[in-house]
Amino acid sequence: MSTEGFSHLRVEYGDVPLARTDLPPDPFDLFRRWLQEAAAAGVNEPNGMALATVDADGQPHCRILLLKTLDARGFTFFTNQHSAKGGQLDANPRAAATFWWPRPRNRQVRITGTTELVEPEVADAYFQSRPRRAQLCSAASPQSRVVADRDELERRVDALARTVGDGPVPRPAHWGGYRLVPAAIEFWQGRDGRLHDRFRFRREGVGWAVDRLAP
Length: 215
Description:
- The protein is of the alpha+beta class and 215 residues long.
- Helix content is 26%, strand content 33%.
- It is built from five helices and nine strands.
- Strands 1, 2, 3, 4, 5, 6, 7, 8 and 9 form a nine-stranded antiparallel sheet that branches.
- It is globular, with a radius of gyration of 20 Å.
- The mean pLDDT is 94.
């Protein structure tokens, strides 16, 4: 059996440091700054994150989705609650998320914590802010379920469009948002020679404790 190697796919990350003196007291402030810098550098969908969940058998699952809102409570994304990820989060609310921004500074942010459903009015506001086609598709799709073919999906969307006509698309009761409430947030700054800078913020009372981690 032949083996294909990828060790030649290597880049140096530069040597821009992340020092303890660069860290604000609130990790959300640093996260916002890093995301804004990635967006300004032209990173495609800088709010994209890998979300990891665990099913009832202990099997981890990971997928890319988009962060939609951020506040002092946590990181919010939206989905069909009947989807695979929704079922996993309902059974086990613990989750982890990772952001990766290769530009401009080769940075990574890792978040671990627990999820909670957002308030219905928050889900309503976000759903109505989406393009109408996205509303129809997310309302009609039986996310994560087996379907016969793409025609079935398109028929579902067309049927819903005919039902609502020119009226608003109602948000399905099973479509909403999850807020990832962090217990820890780690900031990773790539450095030359793989001697990276890593700092982890840990919840401690009403504030945060900070540790430097070895790369």
